Amino acid sequence: METSTKITRKWILCTFGSFISCFIFLLYLKHNNEAVHFRTLRHAMFNVTLSLDDSFFHPGNLETSKAATSREDEGNIIQKNSKNKCNIFEGRWVYESKGSSYYEAPQCPFLSEQVSCQKNGRPDFDYENWSWEAHDCVIPRFNGRDMLKRLRGKRVIIVGDSLNRNQWESLACLLYSTIPPSRAHLDFSSSSYKVFKAKDYNVTVEFYWNPFLVQLDSKNAPKILRLETLDLSCLHWQGADIMVFNTGHWWLHRGKFKAWDLFEYKGQLVDELKLESAFEVAMGTWANWIDQNVNLIKTTVFFRSVSPAHQGQTGCYTKTQPITDISHVTHFSESLMEIVVRTLSKMRVPVRYLNITKLSEHRIDAHPSVYGKKKGQELMKRKLKPPESFADCSHWCLPGLPDTWNRLLYASLVLDHPTDSPGLSHLVS
């Protein structure tokens, strides 16, 4: 009996000691735990430490990428390092041998000849196999059905030049390829206005061609760029739930490609006005309209940074691999980018800055190059000039790089927090 009592006491002491040990261990975990869940839309970040190579390109081991993908499919953004804030625009390109494209070009009959590289004879596919990974967080893969659910009953407008049309084609295809074609409405006959609608979700995605954002009167001579008057398409912008704007390329055109003869500024026609000054006035005109017309509760506004071109020397002709020199910077329209950031930082309405410039600069392989068409004929079959002289090194093949822009747009909606206006400079590389 006495022996039994001693055993019982020892058992109680052992149990109590185990309980105390577990309690201390849990306190330790609570103090040191860096795992904080970030669920979509206003939930906290989920932090896990991953040992990743910080190089800009990573064509080798894909185990980390595959593990990340399994988590990405859950629709979460996963923080890798609690010390650094998640910046989805800082990262590296990772090669995936099985391909990372979300759709096949033939699935989307509305893709323009300008971006249909495979259809126009491009023989290689590697440019479709590069996936963007952020340094400090795992970005979810684009999920068309999830995005349609998030956008249910909403209207998206994409406004800008042909590079924003490139982005519209990508987004429309990403969404169109996830639903039955009979449940979509498409109007893509015009180059200046296009619309995709997912009927079952009541989601519309529209494109308005407006390369300057302000009004260009090019029907009469002289051609006048009105710096203090928005393009008439602004009448259709109002009321949209998500707005994506860009401008930049057309401001840099010279010679026969220059779109204007005179600026209209302060009620006067002027021809001697510094380009940067004119651009800043135009950006101010756009910003004032946004501040005065956007409902902060209803609408989210994005401004996409300039899409880099790779002109000069042989340009993008014959390039089938990205630029692997991580220090490579083209400084394409750097002064205009600084004006954009300065303008956004002064606005009442918080604008999310889609800073795709740096990550796109290295993708010299992703342009249509000579695999485009002009007047219905493949450029390579014309043989009128040396191929490098007519290679398109500004736009992008689809599937391709603009799908990554839209993946980052999607990720920004998942993060669901607008960029703090005064801190925009930290997003510019």
TrEMBL record:
Residue ranges annotated for the Trichome birefringence-like C-terminal domain, each copy included: 139-411
InterPro entries documented for this protein: TBL (IPR029962), TBL_C (IPR026057), TBL_N (IPR025846)
Transmembrane domains' residue ranges: 12-29
Pfam families named in the record: PC-Esterase, PMR5N
Highest taxon of source: Eukaryota
Membrane topology qualifier: Single-pass membrane protein
Record localization: Membrane
Signal sequence bounds: none
Trichome birefringence-like N-terminal domain sequence ranges: 85-137
PROSITE patterns: PROKAR_LIPOPROTEIN
GO molecular function: O-acetyltransferase activity
Presence of the UniProt keyword Transmembrane in the record: yes
GO CC annotations on file: Golgi apparatus; membrane
Record key words, sorted: Membrane, Signal-anchor, Transmembrane, Transmembrane helix
Protein family membership: Belongs to the PC-esterase family. TBL subfamily.
PANTHER family per record: OS01G0614300 PROTEIN, PROTEIN TRICHOME BIREFRINGENCE-LIKE 9-RELATED
UniProt-recorded name of the protein: Uncharacterized protein
